[in-house]
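Training component of the fellowship. As part of building independent skills, the fellow (R.M.) carried out the full modelling exercise for a liganded target. The chosen ligand was magnesium ion. The inputs are recorded below so that the supervisory panel can assess the work.
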Amino acid sequence: MSEKNDQVLLRVENLCQYFKTTKAVDDISFTIKKGEVFGLVGESGCGKTTTGRAIIKLYNITSGSIYFKDRRISAGTLSYRKAITDARKEMRTADPARKAELERFIAEQKELIRSARYDQKNADKLYEDVMSQEVDEKYKPLLAAASGEELWALQKKYAYEKRIAANQRFTTQIQMIFQDPIASLDPRMTVYETIAEGLVIRGEKDKAVIDEKVYRVLEMVGLVRDHASRYPHEFSGGQRQRIGVARAVVMEPELIIADEPVSALDVSIQAQVINLMNDLRHKLGLTILFIAHDLSVVKYFSDRIGVMYYGKLVEMASSDELFLHPIHPYTQSLLSAIPRPDPLFEKQRRRIKYDPLSAHDYSVDKPSFREVLPDHFVYCNDEEFAAYQRAYGGQAE
Ligand SMILES: Nc1ncnc2c1ncn2[C@@H]1O[C@H](COP(=O)(O)OP(=O)(O)OP(=O)(O)O)[C@@H](O)[C@H]1O
Ligand SMILES: [Mg+2]
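Fellow's submitted model of the complex:
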């Protein structure tokens, strides 16, 4: 296992992403620590890609907050607006003391809306300022102490780093590897251009630096220098996904979101790409949000796993714990679908079907995401919570 500390890199809090009537992501929360691989699993349409796209700021999120390195990079306002509506309703029948309380509450919510809108809009600009300041602080004493030839060289380096800082965005520190390696590569761009593109956008102009980075990363992903001048259609599916990995890794991102990077590939090629990512993860100390619809793909690769069902996180635990004690019936059903290389087991293996309507009665007793065992969370109501604790509580160490 790679070295780990407890620094939280990404914190997703009560994230909602609605598209008209579709609640693609509906109030999910999780964190990813530096150096960790977090697997996000669930069937087609449950909101995995939407979660990833929300994190890289492709949407104005509906509600909740996303923090990257303790800075809020995205914030939505629906929960605050709803709270105001509810408070106004209550106000109609409230006594004067309660009314005053509600008025203060509404003022608070308005302030939260204002601050959410501000962060949503300005996170990148604020970040750019911080980066720019860091460069100033680094160079000020150096410039003051230097003279002649040395000063001239230093000034050049200073100007260069300032330019890079001015182009820094949170989103350049978060890179996404896309689901479909064919659609995500521009057919008119060579491999070299594809991989170099992000560097150029970031403000890198030095051809020698770009060359060095592109060729180094090509080798890292198991391609060769000769491949650089070729076009995507000249490559196999597995190779194309290696190009996708190279394009992300070359930016030296703090976080990689790998959205089903292998599901479009032949089974025989899947393992190669997974092994490559596992390799790079240890070599470069990457932090990865790994999205998949199949638990068997994420099992050995993820430190922790979140299981999604229709926009909700229904279970979250360490990878080992989840496979040892799958609690939510949907997780159990996903697990029952994984074949094992054991004929005896296979003979007895029965697929468990998940039918939410017969599995839960949420008509009165409403569900929420709760810690059933230490660091093991399940979406459940009071009655289920008590039952899960009775069934599994004694097994916690
Ligand atoms: N831009 C959009 N506009 C409207 N609806 C959308 C949009 N993007 C996603 N959706 C809907 O949101 C839901 C979640 O979609 P999403 O792509 O996040 O699922 P997914 O878990 O990634 O599925 P898959 O495994 O098939 O990739 C789906 O019902 C989808 O139709
Ligand atoms: Mg998807």
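The panel noted the following from the submitted structure. The chain has a mean pLDDT of 91. The first strand starts at residue 8 and ends at 19.
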